[in-house]
Write a structure and sequence with these properties.
The chain is α+β, with helices and mostly antiparallel strands. Helices cover 50% and strands 20% of the residues.
């Protein structure tokens, strides 16, 4: 006797067992089919969400940084016929940006020692301002004209004191910035 003939003879004697086994096999196939369909729909939903995210990112690519008024023709170099005039223009640009966001300049020092050789003018400036204004200041300095480079920045948080002085909540910032001077024409 073989295994197949034994199973056939057993199921032939009891049609109820054959029907139950048939229904169990159909149930297993339907369960496997429904699990596969659920998996496919989850993958399709995930692909749609990824496509929507990609479309949002691509739509952001076309947007440019906000252009400042009158900045259609920008000059990346510091203006000035001499190195001293260019360093004054750098100081005026940075200190004007600081006061424009509500900060106050404490001290400044222009470095023109390397300006004659590689035409880079450096500036060390110490100032105080509120924390939200710092982001606006850095954005203005890095995107405005002339093109400036932030070489180093040191930020000190206000010390926690019970004083109600407005200056107690301001950040103390030391900023090294530099710009390129075109040179004498």
């Amino acid at each position: 006797m073989t295994v197949v003939s034994t199973i056939t003879r057993f199921l032939g004697r009891s049609p109820l067992i054959a029907a139950v086994l048939y229904l169990v096999a159909i149930g297993l196939f339907l369960t496997a089919f429904s699990m596969a369909m659920l998996d496919i729909t989850d993958q399709v939903r995930s692909a749609q969400q990824t496509s929507e995210t990609l479309a949002q990112l691509r739509s952001r690519e076309g947007r440019a940084a906000p252009v400042q008024a009158g900045a259609t023709e920008t000059n990346p170099f510091l203006e000035g016929t001499t190195l001293t005039v260019a360093s004054a223009a750098l100081l005026q640009r940075v200190s004007g940006a600081i006061t424009g966001v509500g900060g106050s300049v404490q001290s400044s020092q222009v470095d023109i020692t390397t300006g004659g050789k590689d035409r880079i003018v450096g500036l060390l400036i110490n100032f105080e301002l509120e924390q939200p204004a710092l982001q606006k200041l850095l954005f203005d300095l890095e995107t405005g004209s002339p093109m400036l480079f932030i070489d180093q920045i040191d930020i000190q948080a206000p010390q926690s004191t019970p004083a109600s002085d407005d200056r107690a909540s301001q950040l103390r910032v030391s900023l090294n910035a530099s710009g390129r001077w075109r040179g004498p024409k």
